[in-house]
Amino acid sequence: MAALVVVGSLNQDLIFRTGQFPAPGETRLGQYSTCLGGKGLNQAVAAARMGVETAMIGAIGPDSHGETARNFLQQEGIAAHLQRVEDSHTGVASITVDDSGENLIVVAAGANAALSEAHVQSLESTIAEARVLLVQMEVNPAAVLAALQLAREHGVFTVLNPAPLREDIPEEIWQWADLITPNETEFAWYLKQHRQLELHPDYWMEAEAQLHAFSRTLSPAACILTLGQMGALAAVDDDAEQAFRVLPEAVEAVDTTGAGDAFSGALAAGLAEQLDHGLTPDWPALLQRASQVAALAVERPGTTTAFPTREQVQQRFGA
Fold it and tell me: What positions carry a catalytic annotation?
């Protein structure tokens, strides 16, 4: 039985490193590598490496990328429940990284966009047996909604990472999440898109108390807002005065690709572990460990290739 179920995307990442991003119409020389990614797979791997039994629900095409993804998940000890979409291809992402560690990403969704409600519903027992369900928006929104509804029906804690930005998220999807985990760009965009609220650029510097009101405007769920170099803000209690900030670990970033996925996966894993032991979530501890996982992930190039194990995190930061 998996304590954590991830419903999300699988991609083959094509990674290009160059000194600085090319201007429109410009060609620059660089280096190439490839690895598996996709927000769903990334988050599942980050969680599994924290020692939590993890299952993944997703979709692949009838190609070598899909079989590579299936084999990789099995090697990581992740139960793979993958729909095979015959008339599509496994998702592919082009990732360009500059010398500062910043990235530009273009994704061809392929089979991810065809993940069906029927496939998700056929795995009701897998979701029902979990402690936590983690979803993102890089697959068919209808499948995400179906997963959230099944989880709520069976009393499973639901985590929505509302990324990437997309206009076709069903309005009701926010109502089925127990926790949302946007970054600052996503949070501001969705507030403006759905609630016609525009945040001042300096909001993030003094937002502990105000975050609660803004997050409840968007969703009744608890909110953990990731802010990159500014750490993370959490509004997980009904009392707005209990919102708090966790500062990031000091690291030298090599590649920030996948840092948010490392954070979300580690957070969901820690939450599943605590709930599996009948504990009330220790949010400061959960955020601190998730921040540590994300910090180690940016110190090496790549996505899943850079994600640390539980032992590596403990060696660096302690138990």
Answer: 261
